Amino acid sequence: MTRKPHFSIATIALDCPDAHQLAGFYGGLLGWDVTASEPDWVLLRCPDGGTGLSFQSEPGYRPPVWPERPAEQQKMLHLDIRVDDLDEAERYAVAHGAVRAEHQPQDDVRVLYDPAGHPFCLFLD
């Protein structure tokens, strides 16, 4: 029997039209610093450790549609971000460039779009 190697997720990568712009948005939102940068790729890491976020510029990037609709670009994942004050966190995110989604499926979750059109959720701690 083959030994199972250790797996851990180090980074979640998001495709986007401009890696530096989207890294700036999430860096400001989360308070994370850039830890590596190339012309078309940027890495952010949480100062407390854990999984990081990276951003890859893709010239053919198309933002996903949410809620999903047939024959449209589907989202492949979304980020769930824990907050301690939902209203204040939404205001802060919007001030940094997020847009509130029209469809809000739950009272205790806020769905927003980042500047590249990826949906993400804010939820109470």
Automatic annotation (TrEMBL):
<protein>
    <submittedName>
        <fullName>Glyoxalase</fullName>
    </submittedName>
</protein>
<dbReference type="InterPro" id="IPR029068">
    <property type="entry name" value="Glyas_Bleomycin-R_OHBP_Dase"/>
</dbReference>
<dbReference type="Pfam" id="PF18029">
    <property type="entry name" value="Glyoxalase_6"/>
</dbReference>
<dbReference type="InterPro" id="IPR037523">
    <property type="entry name" value="VOC_core"/>
</dbReference>
<feature type="domain" description="VOC">
    <location>
        <begin position="8"/>
        <end position="125"/>
    </location>
</feature>
<dbReference type="InterPro" id="IPR041581">
    <property type="entry name" value="Glyoxalase_6"/>
</dbReference>
